[in-house]
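Sharing a chain and its predicted structure for anyone who wants a worked example. Both blocks are below, sequence first, tokens second.
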Amino acid sequence: MRLLLTWVLSAIAVWIVAQIVPGFSVRGPVAALIAALAIGFINATIGLVLKIVTFPLTLITLGLFWFVINALMLELASALVPGFHVRGFGAAFVGAVLLSIVNLLLKWLVLPRKENR
């Protein structure tokens, strides 16, 4: 149940970012759900490999290079998901930053905390 709720919250975050960032668009709730699924899958596979390979560069930039990787993953998801479009690297970069923030806030507001037992 928690996984399904996380997926829906991610889709809501994609929709919110699409309303804020110019060049970032989603055509409806189904496209937002598919985009959230694709973004999660791409980040868990290709994004993870890229983050491991570019770890030294990430250390040099104090972690800021991860936003570049996330922007590239958003552009890849945009190329794969119909109804989800990101126009340009600038929109992808701003979208990646805002998507991280909105996702964090939504999960903080909705999901219950895990208690240490």
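Comments welcome. The CA atoms of residues 24 and 89 lie 11 Å apart.
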